[in-house]
Amino acid sequence: MSDNHTGKQIEFAARALKMPAIRRCWAELAERARTDNWTHEQYLAAILDRQVSEREANGTVLRISGARFPAVKTLEDFNFDHLPGDGAQETSPGVLTEIPHPWAAPTVASVGLVRWRCAGFGCGRGGRVAGRNRRRV
Hints:
Structural class: mainly alpha
Low-confidence stretches: 107-116, 125-129
Number of helices: 3
Distance between the termini: 79 Å
Strand order of the largest sheet: 1-2-3
Order of helices and strands: HHHEEE
Number of strands: 3
Shape: elongated
């Protein structure tokens, strides 16, 4: 195994470069590299690969938790009794009904003009999107 001074240098450099995976696994991979007769390049590639894969996994978890999504919802948890309808149409799990979107159909504001409703948040234009008023052809 490496001498104590070299180990402390690696620990310090990994901490300074903010590479926690290298700090945790360098000794284990160094021992494996010695037993399997890895080249310096193979050892470097293995240790960097470990750091990159851990950083990608942690980044994904942090982005998902930082997004603050609401509770996880699945189709199995959905209550189909609360769907709007006149009661004549029977809706059961697994059968999807077509639900019209408010921005899918244009509303006629005046003769020759079509106004599209805003689908985004915070447009602040009273239901209109800038540049979306067009003449009908």
